[in-house]
C-alpha cells in the first residue's frame, strides 16, 4: 500500500514540476556588426525547436544529443535552417539593394557561445561576412509574415553594442540604423508604464506553481503533503 502511495505522490510531483518548467518559446536573433573599414557581419540564430509543429513543448536539442547525432541528420538540420531563415527575416538596405546572405551554419550554444556541458541547449548559428555596398546609408530588417516566431534585432558598430534593440513580430519592420552616425534614424517609442494593479498582477507568482521565480518549491511541498495524506489514509483503512 505504501509503495502505491509513494508512486502516486512522485507521479504528481513530476507532473506539477513539468507544468512549472515549460521551455520558453524560441525566437530568432539577428545580429549585425559594422566595422570602420566597411566590413559587415550578419549572424542569425535558430533553435532547432523552431522546426517542430509546436516549438513551445518540443524538447531542446542538447549537447549530449548532438554528440550522438549522425552526420546526415546534422546536414539536414543545417539545410532546414537555411530554408527557414529565408521565410522569417529579410535584410533591407537604403537605398534598396538586394542582399541574399549565404550563411555558414554551425552548431553552437546560445549567443554563439561554446558548447561545454552535456545539457547545454544547441543552436544553429549562421554567419555571413561581406562589404557594405557603396552608397548604402541605412540598414534594417523585416520580420516576414511567413514567419511564426518573433525576431530579435541587435546591432554592434565600431566595437560597441547599440543599446536600442527591438522585438519584431511577423510583418513588422525594425528601425533604420544610419550607417554614417550608427544611430537609429527614428526615436524609440515611449516606454509602456503599467499601473500599480497591473504591475502587481505581473509580478505576483503563480499561486499554483510559483512561476514568479524559477522554483520547484511548491510542487515539492504539494507532493510531500499528498504522500503524507495518502499514507495516513491507507493506514486508517488497513484492518486492525
Protein model, in words:
This protein is of the alpha+beta class. The chain folds into 2 domains: about 1-20 and about 195-235, no CATH class; about 30-180, no CATH class. The protein is built from 5 helices and 10 strands. The chain has helices at about 1-20, 65, 70-90, 195-205, 215-235; strands spanning about 30-35, 40-45, 90-95, 105-110, 125-130, 140-145, 150-155, 160, 165-170, 175-180. Strands 1, 2, 4, 5, 7, 8 and 9 form a 7-stranded mixed beta sheet that branches. The protein has a 3-stranded antiparallel beta sheet with strand order 3-6-10. Helix 1 packs antiparallel against helix 5. It starts with a helix and ends with a helix.
Order of helices and strands: HEEHHEEEEEEEEHH
Q: What is the CA-atom radius of gyration, in angstroms?
A: 24 Å
Helix content: 25-40%
N-to-C CA distance: 15 Å
| Count of all domains | 2
Mean pLDDT: 83
The number of E-state strands comes to 10
> How many strands, what sense, and barrel or not for the largest sheet?
7 strands, mixed
Percent range for β-strand residues = 15-25%
Specify the structural class.
alpha+beta
Q: With helices defined by DSSP (H or I, 4 residues minimum), what is the helix count?
A: 5
Low-confidence stretches: 5-21, 202-218
- Using the alpha-carbon principal axes, give the shape: globular
